[in-house]
Amino acid sequence: MRRPKILTTLRTYNRSLFLSDLIAGVTVAMVALPLSLAIAIASGAGPEKGLVTAIVAGFLISLFGGSRVQIGGPTGAFIVVVFGVIAQHGYDGLVIATFMAGVILLIAGYFRAGRLISYIPEAVVNGFTIGIAIVIATSQLPDFLGLTVAQVPADFFEKIPVLWDARASFNAIALGTALLTILLIVGLRRIAPRFPGLIVAVGMASLLVIVATLQVDTLGSRFGALPSSLPWPTMPDVSLSRVLELVPSAIVIAFLAGVESLLSAMVADRMIGGSHRPNAELLAQGVANIGSALFAGLPATGAIARTATNVRAGGKTPVAGLIHALTILIVMLLAAPLAGYLAMPALAALLIVTAWNMSEPHKWPEYARGRTGDKLLLLLTLVLTVAVDLSVAIGVGVAVGLALRLSRRSSVESDWRPPER
């Protein structure tokens, strides 16, 4: 079924459901705000692109999606891909690739490809997820340590010597700010799991920087003032040659958006005892990525951590996701200048915590106890993600994984559980 879930839930919608969705939507917006800014910066884009994506794509994913509680927007999984596309093709190339990925997802949803996720080996998903987490964490080291680096290379093995050469510029105050942010994030999560601790942690660390006039870069000092309104939608400037050179990037973006959104919806189903509509979800991701591209935003997908936050905060229907997007829009319209005071080490710490959570360290012992073939497949995908390219890692990983399945003469029915991140 490709019908949006919101049409089903609105039949019995009432005041009680709205109040639950209102509280959850505002709560998850406070989590999404700093994450969207940090993800955009780590991707090599301006911080405002993260807000635009969270607003436009987040709204469309909830409006057209196949899950009751899915929250969409920019996610850490895209950082590696987006950074590479911008470095190779420019930001306009990323916009075109995102638009193309949206079209691919619309086609996949129309042809009911949502169930194909069952053919993707769990080891491949785990491998490229851990690989992405490693790349994200290392990309944040300059701000985390306060290093002065003119430009950090995209290649992992080129990045390490550049960071080592910049060690003389180490800033202990930046490191202290980052560590304080991590302590606040972890502490608030344990003390009050439902509380939007991310924005409080980043805000408190940044406030200390401003009040004590510490020598630490802020969002405003590096990127200037954030815009206080959405841009007008415009069609990307597309040519046949541009489309052909961006096809591989568009396929990878579409693959990640589809897999991540369906994983998130599966996790949400387990949390609420529901059942999502995979093909409607793919269509929603297609609409959302086309919409984000029209506003010059980033690729978007269902966000597992934000979706889980929505459920824990009491979200009941897709209206919570709409409220989440509108809340971020209101903050952008009324309080954009305040974002300029956010400390860069605090945002780097936020992304390093996000990368750690993405890698799901509590599952590593389980991976180690798995079949030898699965362990080798996970390591292969991980190494290719870090050392070569995500598209190569996915292509090789899926091919080898399917070959392993055939060699075991087992059913193609999925035998894995969705991750909890």
UniProtKB/TrEMBL annotation:
It comes from the Bacteria. The chain crosses the membrane at residues 21-44, 50-66, 71-87, 93-111, 123-141, 168-188, 195-216, 246-268, 326-356, 376-404. InterPro entries: SLC26A/SulP_dom, SLC26A/SulP_fam. It is a multi-pass membrane protein. The keyword Transmembrane applies. Keywords: Membrane, Transmembrane, Transmembrane helix. Residues 18-379 form the SLC26A/SulP transporter domain. It is found in: Membrane. This is SulP family inorganic anion transporter. It comes from Nitratireductor kimnyeongensis.
